[in-house]
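Project outcomes to date are best conveyed with an example. Our students and postdoctoral researchers have been running inverse folding experiments weekly, and each run begins with a structure described purely in C-alpha cells. The record below, which covers 263 residues, was selected by the lab manager from last quarter's runs and is presented without edits.
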C-alpha cells in the first residue's frame, strides 16, 4: 500500500507515528510546508519519504490522508484535484466538523473518489487512539485499507455519518476533558500532601487502572464504583461532595457545548 499524509502537525504527526510504528511495510510520503516537522519524522522513521510538495506526496498514492486545518482543506483539495480525479484514491479527511457533503462540494461534480471522514485523537501517537470513521463510495478493499491504517493507531469504529460528531466530542475533545480531570486530581493530591511527581505518577496509574478494569471486566462504571464504596465510608463522601459541585452535570454540559452546531 502506498499512502500520502498531507500535513505533519499534531494529528498528521501522530497518525504517521502510529502507522510507521506498527506497519513499517506501508510506503508513506508525508508533506508539510515547513521542513522542521518533516525532519523530526524522518529522523525517527528513516524509511518514510518527506516532501514540501503535496502533489509529489499524493502522486500514485492509493490512500491520501488530509491532516490540515479545516480552513486550509479547500485549497489542498483544489491542489490535488487532478491527481484525485486520475487515480481515484481513498481520500481521507481528518478535519473536525467537515462532513462528506462538504468534501463532495470541494471535489466538484466531475471528481468522485471514495471519501472518508476519519476522526482520530492525539493518542494515535502512542497507538491508543479512539478513531471514528464514516465513508461514501469506499470499496470493500478501500474500507479495509483505511481501517488497517487507523487500527495501527488504536481502535476504530465504523459508524453512520450522523454519529461522527458525537464520536469526535467523546474521543477527540474527550482527551482534553480527561486531561482536565487528571489535572484537578493532581491539584487535589498535592493539596493533600503528595509531592507533584508522586501525584502525577499516582493519577496516571489510577486512570490507567480504571480504564483497564472496565475493559477487562466489561463492567458498567457504576458497578465498579459500588465495588469501592463502603456504606458510610470515605469514597461515598468524596463522590457526594463532587456531585454537589455539579460534576456529572458539568461533564455532560461540556460535551453538549462541544458538539458542532447543525448547518
Ligand atoms: N488535534 C486533535 O485532537 C484533532 C483530532 C481529530 C481531528 N483533528 C483535525 O486534524 C486536522 C489537523 O489538526 P492539527 O491539530 O494536526 O493541526 P496542526 O497541528 O496545526 O497541523 C496542521 C499542519 O498542516 C500544515 N499545513 C498548513 N498548510 C498546509 C498546506 N497547504 N499543505 C499541507 N500542509 C499544510 C501545517 O504546517 P506548518 O508546519 O507550516 O504549520 C501543520 O503542520 C484539523 O482539520 C483538525 O480538525 C484534530
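After processing, the design step wrote out the following sequence:
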Amino acid at each position: 500500500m502506498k499512502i500520502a499524509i498531507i500535513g505533519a502537525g499534531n494529528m498528521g504527526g501522530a497518525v504517521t507515528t502510529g502507522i510507521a510504528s506498527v506497519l513499517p511495510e506501508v510506503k508513506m510520503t508525508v508533506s508539510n510546508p515547513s521542513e522542521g516537522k518533516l525532519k523530526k519524522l524522518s529522523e525517527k522513521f528513516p524509511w518514510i519519504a518527506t516532501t514540501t510538495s503535496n502533489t509529489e506526496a499524493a502522486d500514485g498514492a492509493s490512500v491520501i490522508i488530509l491532516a490540515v486545518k479545516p480552513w486550509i482543506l479547500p485549497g489542498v483539495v483544489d491542489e490535488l484535484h487532478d491527481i484525485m480525479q486520475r487515480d481515484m484514491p481513498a481520500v481521507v479527511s481528518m478535519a473536525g466538523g467537515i462532513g462528506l457533503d462538504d468534501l463532495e462540494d470541494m471535489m466538484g461534480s466531475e471528481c468522485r473518489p471514495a471519501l472518508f471522514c476519519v476522526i482520530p485523537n492525539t493518542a494515535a501517537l502512542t497507538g491508543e487512539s479512539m478513531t471514528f470513521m464514516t465513508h461514501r463510495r469506499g470499496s470493500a478493499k478501500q474500507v479495509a485499507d483505511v481501517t488497517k491504517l487507523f487500527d495501527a493507531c488504536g481502535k476504530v469504529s465504523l459508524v453512520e455519518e450522523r454519529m461522527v460528531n458525537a464520536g469526535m466530542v467523546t474521543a477527540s475533545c474527550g482527551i482534553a476533558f480527561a486531561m482536565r480531570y487528571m489535572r484537578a486530581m493532581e491539584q487535589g493530591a498535592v493539596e493533600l500532601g503528595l509531592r507533584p511527581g508522586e501525584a502525577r505518577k499516582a493519577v496516571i496509574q489510577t486512570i490507567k487502572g480504571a480504564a483497564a478494569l472496565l475493559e477487562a471486566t466489561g463492567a458498567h462504571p457504576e458497578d465498579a464504583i459500588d465495588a469501592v464504596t463502603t456504606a458510610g465510608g470515605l469514597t461515598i463522601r468524596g463522590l457526594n461532595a463532587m456531585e454537589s459541585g455539579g460534576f456529572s452535570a458539568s461533564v455532560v454540559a461540556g460535551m453538549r457545548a462541544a458538539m458542532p452546531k447543525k448547518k
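The radius of gyration is 21 Å. Residues 6-12, 31-34, 37, 54, 67-70, 72, 75-76, 94-96, 119-122, 172 surround NAP (CB under 6 Å). The training component of this project remains on track.
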